Amino acid sequence: MPAQLGANTLGPGHAIKRLAKKKRYSSHTHPWVLQQMRIIYNEYSYLETTRNLIGNGIFTLLRNPDALVELRSDDGLWPAAVEELLRYESPVQAFSRGVTAELEVEGTRLPAGSSIVFMIGAAHRDARQYADPDRLDLRRPHNRHLAFGGDAHVCLGSTLARLEGRLSMRAVTRRFPNLRLVDEKADWGTNFGFRGLNTLRVQL
Ligand code: HEM
Q1: DSSP label at 123?
Q2: Atom of ligand 1 lying closest to residue 151 CA
Q3: pLDDT tens for each residue of 135-173
Q4: How far does the centroid of ligand 1 lie from the alpha carbon of residue 92, in Å?
Q5: Do residues 76 and 128 both lie within one domain?
Q6: 156 Cα to the center of ligand 1, angstroms
Q7: Quick one: 29 and 84 in the same domain?
Q8: How far apart are CA 145 and CA 83, in angstroms?
Q9: Which among 25, 29, 22, 23 has a CA at the least distance from the CA of 2?
Q10: How many domains does the chain contain in total?
């Protein structure tokens, strides 16, 4: 971001508004950049998703004590564990695309103007792609998931999210060796696209 914007900024939203008001687009104020900034500063993009990775992850690990024991004894397992937790309880369950020109997908005609919803949470339980998909397997080989989308619009914050997820879940599980669930029953939120817990009650 240009230095003069940073200096006069009252907060991220303020910076975006100022950028959006600029008439002359430079490489910094191109509409695509503004769109990316809106997504980045939208709390759903970075807060809700990462919060859900951590909450869903801790919940899943507490429900799978053997996996937690394994993680506590092998620090090197964390990166793969984060990938499996992203697959197993994906913070983003679905995203959509608009069809700009008529096309056919496996025999179904999709007219221009229609929408496609990709149910990635369901795809992550597809046995054709993942062996024994309902099992949490922290050592799952070739764990190619879609938790961060893919292709041209793949998540820009995935590296940060993976790091935040790994460090925070590792810190919590280390700091509280007796951590356990107060209630095995999950209190899931009802948002269609984002999967996360309303509350996670634990005993330290
Ligand atoms: C566990 C945490 C996260 C998950 C699961 C996640 C998931 C996703 C998914 C599935 C998409 C693609 C949506 C689509 O194709 O329609 C996406 C896009 C995006 N994410 Fe994330 N995200 C996470 C964290 C973050 C963070 C921390 C940031 C920023 C700091 C971020 C910024 C973005 C941006 C800018 C895009 C749009 C990319 C584009 O359209 O080119 N995300 N994210």
Answers
A1: H
A2: 15
A3: 999 999 999 999 999 988 899 899 999 999 999 999 999
A4: 9
A5: yes
A6: 6
A7: no
A8: 8
A9: 29
A10: 2
